[in-house]
Specification:
By secondary structure, this protein is α+β, with helices and mostly antiparallel strands. It folds into 3 domains: 3-158, DNA ligase i, domain 1; 279-454, D-amino Acid Aminotransferase, Chain A, domain 1; 464-608, Beta Barrel (OB fold (Dihydrolipoamide Acetyltransferase, E2P)). The protein has 20 helices and 23 strands. Strands 13, 14, 15, 16, 17, 18, 19 and 23 form an 8-stranded mixed beta sheet that branches. α4 (62-73) crosses α5. The longest helix has 16 residues, at 593-608.
Length: 609
């Protein structure tokens, strides 16, 4: 497959705003690819040369890309930089300059997809003395054999700014279109991806005609984390998880809701537990997924970034566990053993760093509260009921002082659940997570197998995790920070769009303002993000990459915001303020439009009581 054809399809994708049409174009691209080329295409559309959890970064900065464009086009670096300043897009600058090339082409051949992919993989693996010049040479070679349109996407890719707007759900839709598969196939595609977090591998296996059921939990391949739904009070949680009409034998789907994956048959549940759920303390820390295999330990963040080297005390404790292989997850908090208290989320987050690890480990030692297990000594436990998984987890970490099971109770009583919730709040925790004893681990999805109840933010049942899509310049006392606030949006899962929910000017410390100004400056763009629906226009648009947690007095209806918009009215946050920057979360972890609407309904029921 020639990369010129890939670039043409990318251009078509960029020219459409419909998610369905976008998936159709990607499906056409897949239909002309071999299974191995499909794998390469998936990685490129995701902006990587490998699954993101492998951490391979192409690593070419703007000034080095400018040198490669100048070397290929015959223009000076100053002319290239000037063109970029005018257009705001170095990819478009490369396209324009190669269309009016100032020098004759050197001997070159057409770029194939495989050549482009292997070249960028080579760049990603380069390091050490002379590597930057070597990277520029490889990019120059690709540009030398490229059409102007190819050059646009080659440059954007190496800068991490492909801007196609094609997310993993659209890629899964496209794969199912190629084989004209039914809904069952799509569910299997999603499950395979959720278990291995490698959509490129899933695409290659699927398009080769192989059975997707071969995918299972495996140490070394992070599992996309299960997520919790919300309900506003203890009574509704107990009714949902323990109600007569909802409770069946382990493995049976709950009435009134659907679960994509059924749990495997298991031993009958004790009668005393059939009308109960587990209620765990909800810790406000760093969510970790720990992988153990033959003494080697790997630790992944909730964004599935590998961060093993950052937490030596967790690595040591995990390696000492009595298992040859395991995958389990928990919430890590910084702990002061002399005062027997836990540090705040902001202090715990200081442990997530690449440098100064040993010093920080001494200053803020961690304790990991393990709350679920997905694999143990050769057995995939994701299909097992929660109760079985919990017992396996407790057996695994028994005796460890650094890795301990999360605190929990079993109850079918709204009164006892609420008492436990109030106790958790009094101890400085976020709240509780109630879990269905009979349900499997639903990787990568938000289901009523888990239900969270958190401290209230005004009338709101929870805070909102939103994506920054633009920012405003500071005025008055904030002028020195070049930062006065942000415009935030949440994703609409049905349309694939981002929809604005808040303009936030409060809740920032001076350090956060300086930090945000620096981070947003690096990702600002001249054009509105392609997937964004917004009535407001900030001073600068930015690529939708940074997630923040927002508290507010309530969710309200507003003519200014587009979240869940019906007619001219959408949902918005009243008196929003930033609670925290969430470096541990990706845009795919953001609160969705559906969740915002659900929270609004909870708020309305609460206000009516």
């Amino acid at each position: 497959m020639l990369f010129s054809g890939v670039a043409q399809h990318f251009s078509e994708v960029e020219g459409t705003v419909s998610r369905l049409a976008m998936s159709g174009i990607v499906a056409k691209l897949f239909s002309g690819a071999t299974p191995s080329e499909a794998r390469q295409l998936v990685y490129i559309m995701e902006g990587n040369v490998a699954p993101s959890h492998e951490g391979l970064d192409v690593g070419i900065g703007e000034k080095f890309a400018i040198r490669a464009i100048a070397r290929t086009s015959g223009y000076t670096e100053r002319q290239v930089a000037s063109g970029c300043k005018k257009s705001g897009d170095l990819g478009e600058t490369a396209e324009a300059l190669l269309e009016k090339k100032a020098q004759l082409s050197l001997s070159s051949s057409e770029n194939t997809l495989s050549k482009v992919f292997s070249s960028f993989l080579k760049i990603a693996r380069m390091s050490g003395s002379g590597s930057q010049e070597a990277k520029i040479s490889v990019l120059s070679e690709l540009l030398n054999g490229a059409t102007p349109l190819e050059a646009k996407y080659l440059v954007r890719f190496c800068l991490g700014r492909l801007r196609l707007g094609v997310g993993d759900p659209s890629i899964i839709d496209a794969l199912s279109m190629v084989r004209h598969s039914d809904k069952t196939d799509k569910i299997m595609l999603e499950r395979a991806f959720n278990l291995c977090s490698d959509l490129g591998e899933v695409a290659e296996v699927y398009l080769s005609g192989s059975d997707l059921s071969r995918f299972s939990a495996q140490p070394g391949k992070p599992i996309r984390p299960a997520l919790a739904e919300r309900l506003p009070n203890a009574r509704e949680i107990i009714e949902k998880l323990c109600g007569e009409e909802a409770k069946g034998e382990p493995g049976r789907e709950k009435a009134g809701r659907k679960c994509a994956v059924q749990s495997a048959p298991s031993a009958p549940m004790a009668p005393a537990l059939r009308r109960q759920c587990a209620v765990e303390a909800k810790y406000d820390g760093l969510r970790m997924q720990v992988h153990l295999k033959d003494g080697a330990v790997g630790i992944y963040s909730r964004k599935l970034e590998k961060m093993t080297h950052m937490f030596p005390e967790i690595v040591k404790a995990a390696a000492a566990l009595p298992a040859a292989s395991a995958i389990f997850e928990g919430e890590a908090l910084a702990y002061n053993s002399s005062e027997k208290r836990y540090y705040s989320f902001q202090q715990t987050m200081q442990r997530k760093r690449k440098h100064g690890v040993e010093r920080m480990a001494e200053e803020f030692p961690l304790r990991l509260f393990a709350f679920d297990i997905m694999y143990l000594d050769g057995k995939d436990l994701t299909m097992a009921p929660y109760l079985e998984r919990r017992r396996a987890l407790e057996g695994l970490v028994k005796g460890s002082r650094t890795i301990v099971p999360s605190d929990l109770i079993y109850t079918g009583s709204p009164k006892k659940l609420d008492e436990y919730f109030q106790r958790a709040l009094s101890e400085g925790l976020e709240g509780i997570i109630a879990k269905d004893l009979a349900q499997p681990y639903v990787a990568g999805a938000r289901k009523f197998a888990w239900i969270k109840l958190k401290k209230s933010y005004g009338a709101m049942a929870d805070s909102v995790d939103a994506i920054i899509v633009g920012y405003y310049l500071g005025k008055g006392a904030r002028e020195e920070f070049k930062f006065g606030g942000v415009l935030a949006a949440v994703p609409n899962e049905e349309t694939g769009k981002l929809e604005t929910i808040a303009k936030i000017g409060g809740g920032f410390t001076e350090d956060e303002m300086a930090s945000l100004a620096e981070a947003l400056e690096k990702i600002k763009t001249k054009e509105k993000p392609k997937a964004l629906v917004s009535k407001l226009e900030p001073d600068f648009w930015v690529e939708p990459k940074i997630v923040i947690t927002i508290a507010a007095d309530e969710i309200t209806l507003s003519p200014m915001h587009t979240c869940g918009m019906v007619g001219e009215t959408g949902y918005a946050l009243r008196f929003p303020r930033m609670v925290a920057m969430r470096d541990d979360k990706s845009p795919s972890d953001a609160t969705t439009v559906r969740e915002v609407i659900s929270m609004f309904e909870m708020q309305r029921r609460k206000n009516a009581q």
